[in-house]
Each structure stands twice: as structure tokens, then as C-alpha cells.
Amino acid sequence: MASILLVQDILRSERHSALGSFLEAQGHKVNRVMADGEELLTPVQPGDIAIVQMGRASGAGYLLTRQLRQASARMGILLLAAEHESAMVRIGGLERGADFCEAMPQRMELLNAYLDVMLRRVAPQAWRLDVAGRTLHAPQHDAVEINSREVALLKALANSTRHAADRCTIAHAFGVDWVSFDERVLEKTVSRLRRKWRDSTMCDLPLRTLHGVGYCFTEAIQAC
């Protein structure tokens, strides 16, 4: 599932609340951000996809889309247009950085299709660590619930160069000083995580031991 930034006009937020509820029901993590015209009223958190719902694409919708694209070349952006807005207006949304600029679909399957297309671009063949939901998702859509220590381990690997972290870095991720760190705790955590994944999916987890150093996740992984 995706981490979605939902940007909405503060004057229309109640009228547009159904979209956020739908996305959450689909299992997405939704971060709602209110905008007053072209000004975002809350800080923008990193996400996989942004949906800009300002009532119409032109005007503030254009400006917010440009801001989001300048902030992240990677993020997928869906700019929602009004039903009456012309093809030229929608092309203008694409020119300002949106991946799609369309009216809210009457069939929500089409909205899901837009999200799937953007996710394939944003995170091609990447594992996804849902930190808040304590779930690890494989590219093949297998998913396993994990505990807080396993989340800390995988998050440290996801945020490290080449997804490799030494034991000292992992100890700090566990909230423990390296001097007093019991390495047996780490070894048990890794063993339990590997076994949990294998028992649930019948596949091996791409978590490799770097002997004398630490651990490496050998495939692309993103924490969200």
C-alpha cells in the first residue's frame, strides 16, 4: 500500500472528506494537508503519492502541483480537475508536474488504477516497510506483520547506504548504547525475522549477514 499525501482546500475539506476515507479503507496511509489557496497550512511529509484536490485544477491546483514537483521529482502526483475544466486546462496540470490531471472518477476502480500506475514508477520492485503498521511488504504483494524491534532493524537498513548497517548503527536503532549492547539480542531478532518470513511466504528473506560487520538487505527497500 502507498503513503499518500492528500492536499485539500480548507474551505472544502468537509465536502471532500470521502476521498480520504476511501483511501484509508483501501489500506493506504493518508496524511491530510490543508491548503488555503496556494499556501500549505501544515508541513509536507514525504510520501509516495500526492493527490491535490482543490476543487479545480487551474489556479491554486497548478501552483501547489508545481511546489510538490519541485520538492520531489520521485513523488507521484494526481491533480484532480473539475468536471467542466477543458482538455487544455488538464494539459496545463501535466505541464506543471502532475502524472495525471483528471476529474474525480465516478468509478473508484479508475482511481485505484491511477495509483497503481504511479506506484510502479515510484517504487519499482521495491520492498516496503510500513513503520506505523509494523508490516513488511514484498514486491510480489506478500506481507508479514513484524514486531517493533524487527521494524527498527529493517528501518535502519532501509535508511542506510546500500541498505547495509553495522552492529553499532543497529544498536542505536534499538535505542541501546553500543557499549552495553547484547549482540545476542540482534542475532535472535534476525533469526526470528527470517523464520517468520519463511514460514509465512515459503520464501527466504533477502537479509544477508556481513560477518564481523552487521547486516545487509540485498534488495531495494523503502520505509514509509
Number of H/I helices: 7
User: In this structure, how is the largest beta sheet organized?
Assistant: 6 strands, mixed
User: What percentage of the residues does DSSP assign to strands (E)?
Assistant: 25-35%
CATH topological fold name of the largest domain:
Rossmann fold
Q: Which series of helices and strands comes N to C?
A: EHEEEHEHEHEEEHEHHEEE
Strand order of the largest sheet: 3-2-1-4-5-6
Low-confidence stretches: none
**Mean pLDDT value:** 89
Radius of gyration: 20 Å
Query: How many distinct beta strands?
Result: 13
Describe this structure in words.
With 224 residues, the protein is an alpha/beta fold. The protein has two domains: 120 residues, Rossmann fold (3-Layer(aba) Sandwich), CATH 3.40.50; 97 residues, Orthogonal Bundle (Arc Repressor Mutant, subunit A). Helices cover 37% and strands 25% of the residues. The protein has seven helices and 13 strands. It has a six-stranded mixed β-sheet. The protein has a four-stranded mixed β-sheet with strand order 9-8-7-13, covered by helices on one side. It has a three-stranded antiparallel β-sheet with strand order 10-12-11. A hairpin with a 2-residue loop joins strand 2 and strand 3. It is elongated. It starts with a strand and ends with a strand.
